[in-house]
Write a structure and sequence with these properties.
The chain has 175 residues and is α+β, with helices and mostly antiparallel strands. The chain has a domain of 97 residues: Glycoprotein, Type 4 Pilin (2-Layer Sandwich). Helices cover 26% and strands 9% of the residues. The longest helix has 19 residues.
């Protein structure tokens, strides 16, 4: 019986010591739940835009800036979509960590043509492939369809010469 009392007393002393002794930097309420904390806002630095040109096979290297051959007379619909994949790759390179621009055709076109937080353009806002509504269009004047698959994968679809989606002449590039 004395051993039990000694064990209980020892346990009580241990618990009391635990609550009494705290390091200097400890909170006065050891089991209090911390208030909700939000992550600190860190300003995003503008990306460093590399002075380089992307050369796409079959396009004059002097004119071969990103997007320059888009809807060119000597090009193809598939080639146009591959050029747009290069445009998206340039975006991801310069806006590292952000992935592809998001939204519908107008929002993606706006971001790629300089209406973004850094005010840099991968393609000029007056590019002939951009219609009066600010949408990127295929060589037949039909707006392109962008399908975001992940942060760095974007499917791009042209309706083709018949200008109707989901028909046999559609051109689709999936990275």
């Amino acid at each position: 019986m004395a051993a039990r009392i000694a064990a209980v007393l020892l346990a009580v002393l241990a618990v009391a010591f635990f609550f009494w002794w705290q390091p200097e930097d400890a909170s006065p309420e050891p089991f209090a739940i911390a208030p909700e904390m939000s992550a600190p806002r860190v300003p995003v630095e503008p990306p460093v835009i590399a002075e380089r040109s992307f050369v796409v096979e079959g396009i004059d290297p002097i004119v071969g800036r990103v997007g320059a051959g888009l809807n060119a007379a000597e090009g193809t619909a598939r080639g146009d979509l591959l050029i747009l994949q290069e445009v998206l790759a340039a975006w991801r390179t310069n806006a590292s960590g952000l992935g592809n621009p998001v939204g519908d055709n107008q929002e993606i076109t706006a971001a790629l043509s300089g209406q973004n937080q850094w005010k840099f353009a991968i393609i000029p806002s007056d590019h002939p492939a951009i219609n009066e509504r600010g949408e990127l269009c295929d060589r037949w004047g039909t707006r392109l369809f962008f399908h975001q698959q992940s942060g760095d994968r974007m499917e791009i679809q042209s309706a083709g010469p018949d200008r109707e989606r989901f028909t046999d002449d559609d051109v689709i590039v999936i990275p």
